[in-house]
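User: Hey, quick favor. My workstation is busy. Could you predict this chain's structure for me?
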Amino acid sequence: MAGDIQVGPHLLSRLPDAARLLEQRYDFATGELHTRFVFVTDAGVAEAEVVTLCCRSMPTVVWQEVAVTVDRPVRLVVTGGVNHEGVPGRLRERSTETPGSDQPACDGWMHWETRGALSTCGAAYVTSFAGAGQVERACERFDGTAPLRTRYTVEAQPGTRYVLRQLTALVASAFHSQPHRQATRQVTAANIKGWDRLREENRALWGDLWRGRVLIDADDGRWQELADAAFFYLHSSAHISSLFSTAMFGLAFWPNYHYYQGHVMWDIEAFAYLPMALTQPDTARSLLEYRFRCLPAAELNAALHGFDGIQYPWAAGPRHGEEAIRSNAPQLGFEQHVNMCVALAFARHAHITGDPDYARERAWPVLEGVARWVGSRLSPVPGGLGMREVIGIAEAQQPVDNNAYVNMAAAVALREAAVCAAALGKGADAEAWWRSADRIQIPMDGEVILNFEGFDPAQHDVPASTPEALFGLFPMDYRV
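Assistant: No problem, here it is.
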């Protein structure tokens, strides 16, 4: 979504240093971003107030309102549109017409292909303008490579608000084989609903979400503020319509970091899933649907490593659920701790919702596959069973034997699989998994749980931010 303001002969996009930010704030209650800035030129000063929101009721649509006032009579041009400049990839098609219609359904649409042709997306937008005086409207119709733009020109007067509203739909090819056509349909439907109704629906849905707000009884109000921020960003990063779970850091990524660009990792099921399940279970289910759809990739991944069942990769790609971590990661072949977090999330969803159909049709295939994997991964150790040559959640460089977290989590996953098996009448599996879980050994030094067999804090450098043994206790809920 793009915009521009022109005051007299001066264009904001060409004079960005002439703009001065007055205020920007995120309204956690409604998911609205509010921005105020001034554009100072010798022809006049324009003050802009911008409100932007992603519609929860129509998740492909972004809503924006730009209100401009001027300090003197001046020619004012306010522009809305969709700008692809600087985005890696190429423009496949662009138009301001709607096939089969004399009157365009929207201001314009484009079909965009990502770099490497991994996927495409479609974007479409529609605008409206309000303000006193004669308004001239113009679209960029003839330049087939230019950004989509709609300009509104008016002889502006002080004391009058000139308001540009824009709806933009963005659809990925994963949702539709002709995403540009579907984006046009989506933005047309949004336009029929109307700007005010979309904003009201978005506010109502956020209001319903906040009914699940976590309240913290603490003397320092900062803890509540931190919890509210975490709650907001968690729900901003996931939605019932999502096909791809959510990535590390939600919808964000680090431009100067070598990965975490869209990968789905164990942290989602370990940290993000449970509070989501207890406040927005339908959205939590959509996170797990990604893992369910990727069962074939997990089965192939287990086979590649020589194991039975399913093995979810360390960093799953969004399209197929295959391993997507950088290929020079030295510990790649031993990062096998993801399975248990995924299995526990499916088990918890069955418990939280109390849905027997979900337990049978979704949770059981995952739990059974992970239990089979654990069974093929375990080997005899003194006193029972354990896992050799693994790397735990601290993601050390070298594999170890009997990592505390991995063994604890394996026992929890086996017991959850056994509970599900018994409920579904698969008694033989349940008994075998219970016996195996009871035999899994946890590395100990007296009454102290060690991070792994032979662990010595004086010799082993373990990141303090990843306490592996403690993580087995919470949130994996291993009972010592």
